[in-house]
Amino acid sequence: MCDHRRVVAVVDDDQDLLRGLQRLLNASGYDTEVFSSGEAFLDGVAASKATCLVLDIHLGGISGIELRRRLSKLGCKLAIIFMTAVDDEAIHLEAVESGCVAFLRKPFAARALVDAISIATSERADRTSGCVSKH
């Protein structure tokens, strides 16, 4: 039986990045659920065992920030790690205000993601303390 604290969902519309992150997280001891759109994640959220969501901000359909808002309205308590390739302070502020454990700018170091997930999945994670930025 899997430890649900070790299940990470990843949402990104870049299939190569999605596969790469899945390999990285599996090699780091996490089980993964991968989705190529926010809509696909919403369709599967009820069955998801994830406690942490690694979420691209710029997706083909609804944005990662909009997905975060919808999840909040549903009462979903997933820890969120946002990632984006766009260096825009307004987007960064919007992501932080929507609630996240970390905000990573692509390309980011593998260690930065694994560390952020470790914080997000720890039972002591204080998810109201704001968002850590990694450049």
Structural key phrases:
6-stranded parallel β-sheet; Rossmann fold; globular; single chain; 6 strands; 21% strand; alpha/beta; 135 residues
Largest sheet: 6 strands, parallel
CATH-defined architecture? 3-Layer(aba) Sandwich
**Computed structural class:** alpha/beta
Strands side by side in the biggest sheet: 2-1-3-4-5-6
Order of helices and strands: EHEHEHEHEHE
Taking Cα atoms only, what radius of gyration do you get, to the nearest Å? 13 Å
CATH fold node name: Rossmann fold
Round the mean pLDDT to the nearest integer and report it: 88
CATH homolog superfamily: Response regulator
Helix count from the secondary structure assignment: 5
Number of domains: 1
Strand content: 15-25%
Summarize the amount of helix as a percent range: 25-40%
Question: How far apart lie the N and C ends?
Answer: 36 Å
Describe the structure.
- The structure is a single chain.
- The protein is an alpha/beta fold.
- The protein has a single domain (4-134), classed as Rossmann fold.
- It has five helices and six strands.
- The protein has helices spanning 15-27, 38-44, 64-73, 89-98, 110-121; strands at 7-11, 31-35, 52-56, 79-84, 102-105, 132-134.
- The chain has a six-stranded parallel beta sheet with strand order 2-1-3-4-5-6, sandwiched between helices.
- Strand 4, helix 4 (89-98) and strand 5 (102-105) form a beta-alpha-beta unit.
- It is globular and about 35 Å long.
- The N and C termini lie far apart (36 Å).
- 33% of the residues are buried.
- Residues 124-130 have low confidence and may be disordered.
